[in-house]
Write a structure and sequence with these properties.
This protein has helices spanning about 5-10, 10-15, 20, 40-55, 70-80, 100-110, 120-135, 155-160, 180-190, 190-195, 210-220, 230-240, 245-260, 270-280, 280-295; strands at about 60-65, 90-95, 140-145, 175-180, 195-205. It is of the alpha/beta class.
Length: about 300
Amino acid sequence: MPLADAVQSHDETRNAAYELHWGLRLRPFENVPDPNFYVPSVKHEAAMERMLYGIHARKGIVMLTGEIGSGKTLLSRAVILKLPRSRYEIGLVSNPTIPGNEFLGEILFQLGVDPHGTRVEQLRRLNDQLLANYHRNVDTVVVVDEAQAIEHDRLFEELRLLSNFQLNDRFLITLVLVGQPELRERIARIPQLAQRVAIQHHIDYLDRAETKAYILARLAAAGGESPIFSPSAISSIYHCTGGVCRLINSLCDLCLYFGCVSEAPQIGRSLVEKVANEALPRRTHGRKLRRRVVASTNP
């Protein structure tokens, strides 16, 4: 039976709560950056260590890039939670597509500083705030998420100028730029900025073992105790998603839902493949399959 038909035939009350069927306290595969579901894979832990080093050592500009859906935003939120508020003031710019004349004001607003006035007034207030934090032994950190979405290169120049806020022996602000691979390309075209990026790291997709650990860890964080996904189902999830965290989340969530619809005691390979074929973006799914085929033909 097609999945859409199964949805229509299922009781709406039970639709809203597959957690009960699987013995879960929470939904483990929501595509939101909830640090409670951060999974310390080897790749993500390496990225976190470098980001934290750059922040703790006040390196000026730190850059984290990763493929689409690789878990960059979740990682950045997990990093923020590692920074005690007694030692760090943190501003998070999650929508860098705002107009250029409002960009500096948004940074000020996120730091709790009055964002109004002329650019000179804004910079003066920012300088005062950075110095005040310095005298309180507090470091200032600004995280710019989805930084590849910054529309104009002149805004990157504005970020570079922020790194000019420094004393003889230290930076007064640490910028953390998080974005997709094209962020590296854009910054590379601005040598004055590229030379100031002291730490940069790239997150790749999860491998097969990491995908398994990722699924099991998120289930455990949601209160799962029984083996909900069979080993063959987990293998199929990796095959269908290529280790992309966002696709893993989407596929696992739908499998839990439709497994509840059919009152399955466990999720097996056949359900995973059915859900993937009907629900995953076909273009993405096909690209992962082609990648696997190409890899298998290489010596």
